[in-house]
C-alpha cells in the first residue's frame, strides 16, 4: 500500500523542520558551554582566609589592582598597631590590603581579623615599594603613591585609625572561646561583691628594665606609680577588683600590695601567655598600664578609663624623637608622672 501523493510534501516539510531544530539545539548547547567555561575562568579565587586561627589558606590577588601590605614585626601590641594602620591607610588611599602569613599567625588565634593573607610565593615575587612610617599619622600618608606598597616601621598611634574605631574594634573582636575563658576567670574573682568593677593592670618589665635607662634615658613603672594608680580606682569605685598581668610577675608580687583582698595576680602569680593576659585586660572595665604598645591596646579595647605612666624619660631622651605621648595616649586617658630620680642616682628597675 502506497501513501497518497498529498502526504509527500508534508513528510518533506517535517524532515526539514526536524533538521533545523537539531541545528538550533546544537548551537544553543555550544553557546552554553562557552559561557560556562568563560565564567569559570573569570571567577575569583576562593582560597582566602577570614581570620581563621588555623593555618591560613592564602590568596593570590589580581595583581592588576595592586596590593598593599605591612611588615610583621615584634610582639602582639606592635602587630596590632601594624594591622590597624594598614587597614586604615589602605582604605584611605583606596587600595586593597593584605597581611603576611606571620601576622596572621600572631593575630588570628585571638581575633576575628578579616584582611586576606598573601601566600609566601606571592610575597617573594612582588616588586614591593617600601614606605617607611613614623609612629603617628601625617598628612602625606593620605596620598601614598604605588600599586605594590609595603608599609614599614612601628606605627603605634590612634591618629591612624581612631576615625574607624568601630571597624577596628570589630577586627580585634575575640573568638568566642577566648572571651568565655576570660569572662569565666573574672567571674571567679567576684566573690561576694555585688557591684564589682574590674581594673586590669599590665606591668611591662622584661628587657625594658635595662633598655629604658641604658638606651632611652627613661624609667619603667615603680611601686609608687602603681600605688597611685590603684588608689585612684579604689577612691572612685565601691568594689574594685584589680587583675595584674606582667612579664615580671615576681617583681609584681613583691611590690604590689595585695593585703586588702582586691588584688589578684593572673595565673596564680605565674607568667601566662601574652594572648591570655591580653584577653583578661581587654575584658576588664578599666585599665592601668605602664609603658608599651601591649598596654596601650589593652586600654583601647577595654574602652573604660585608662591610667598610664607619663613623662618617663629625660627631656633629652632620644626616645622622644620617635615617640610622642600626645598621639600615643588618647586625650581622655589619665597620666601620672614617673619618678625620674633613679636616672640621676643610677638605681633603676
Automatic annotation (TrEMBL):
One of its GO terms (molecular function) is galactoside 2-alpha-L-fucosyltransferase activity. Residues 46-65 are annotated as: Disordered. It is a single-pass type II membrane protein. It comes from the Eukaryota. GO terms for cellular component: Golgi cisterna membrane. It is found in: Golgi apparatus, Golgi stack membrane. Its main location: Golgi. InterPro entries: Glyco_trans_11. It catalyses: a ganglioside GM1 + GDP-beta-L-fucose = a ganglioside Fuc-GM1 + GDP + H(+). Keywords: Glycoprotein, Glycosyltransferase, Golgi apparatus, Membrane, Signal-anchor, Transferase, Transmembrane, Transmembrane helix. One of its GO terms (biological process) is carbohydrate metabolic process. It is an enzyme of class 2 (transferase). Pfam families: Glyco_transf_11. Pathway: Protein modification; protein glycosylation. Its EC number is 2.4.1.-. The chain crosses the membrane at residues 16-34. Belongs to the glycosyltransferase 11 family. This is L-Fucosyltransferase. It comes from Chelonoidis abingdonii (Abingdon island giant tortoise).
